[in-house]
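Dear colleagues,

As part of the handover before I leave the project, I'm documenting each prediction I ran so the next person doesn't have to rerun anything. This entry is a single chain, and its sequence is reproduced below.
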Amino acid sequence: MKRFNIILVGLLTISLFSCKDFLDMKPTNSADADEAIKTPKDASVAINGIMRAMTSADYYGRNFLIYGDAKGGDFTVYSQGRGLDGLYTFNHAADNGSYSGFWSQIYYCLLQVNNLLENIQKQEALGVTGFNTAKGQALTARALMYFDLVRLYGKVYDQDKNAYGVPLVLNKLSTDAQPLRSTVDQNYVQIIKDLNDAAPLLPKTKLNGYINYYANKAILAKVYLYMQSYGNALTAAEEVINATSLYSLYSNANWTNSWTTQFGSESIFELGMVPLENDLTTGSLGIYHRRRNHGVTQALGFFVASDYFLNRLRQDPADVRWGVMAADETSTTRLGALYKYSGNTALLGDGKATNTAVNIKVIRLSEVYLIAAEAALSSDPAKAVLYLNQIRKRAPNLAPATIATINLDMILDERSKELYGEGQRFFDMMRTNRSITFNDEFGGLTVPHRAKTIDRTFFKTILPISLAELNANPPIRAQQNPGY
């Protein structure tokens, strides 16, 4: 595979393992991979392309975040057939509803990362310097991509870390390569290695739209939390929390308006959405969350808040997080439509000309506080209380947590309220071995592909490898996920 697309626009759903035709053609915006990266400036251009590729509709631009919400019980569907409701109904099979775009798009991103890292290595061998920041960002991005892949296709770490994860591809492949799946544990070992290798290369200054040292540490804290390595998770999270010159929590008065700004004080890693470049317009995340026909007739009211989520938020009518909720199509009083990714309920966006190009918050400081609270819960409950209450006070009428009252369910409830619409709930419920009950009766839905209540023993909580991939890579057929 010799061609390296620098700008990374178009053809973003191509599969890594069946991409010969595209990668052997030289579009007008590409160059030979062996010649593309000569200087740190070239590497920065490549990083820019990688960040853009991560905002594809099949990744952080929309579907990956919806995956984590639609499957987690906090979202429901009022009417089927509007789009992506197969995620909510778990209508997955290898030959239909496999959502193979996750696999192809993330491996496409990994191809670009590996091309960059190999070319940096070549230049450094020639004595060229100045690549540290680009290398650190690429390694961190690769770790995040593998973390996302293994959560989609592999079992939860503490459920069976020796089960199949995803293929580890760390260099450019020949066009006839047929890599097999590594274990979940092997995936996590590589993720941690990449993050640790990257950290000393990254600056401790803000890099709006890109990855800095603290974004690396925030991701590391999250990965350790999933591994139940709580001491390491707490150490990494506190390093971010203590970077007070760069990051601070929003006040209650400022929380709602924070969604109308880019790269605010809580933003640790935020992917830029640029009008006319990677704006998904009527297919954007904000359109999928808002009320039917609000702003544009193409807003179909794809997903709304479940009764279970709204009951959680109703614990305090003064909770500031009501500020991003508005009436859904069912009534003028049911505040089930989400407006984080429209800027606010007035569709102000985040300062751009279009309200469909709101930046994607990959990880925020509030999540890091909640990671720290959970990580400290068993070893230092007083510290867990301290960190949890910094977020819990967004509901000013709720009693603060105490050492006597704090527990994991309280932290998970706070994560639900704070991170609603940010793709977290399903993964939280799986990693903590909670069951999920779906609000199917809200829309009078018929759901033949799953029960009303599921847990992580249900085989469809992980995706199948698609038939297209099985055909392109026959040896991996023997490693298909159970049940498919």
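The longest strand covers residues 267-271. The CA atoms of residues 394 and 474 lie 52 Å apart.

All the best with the project,
I.
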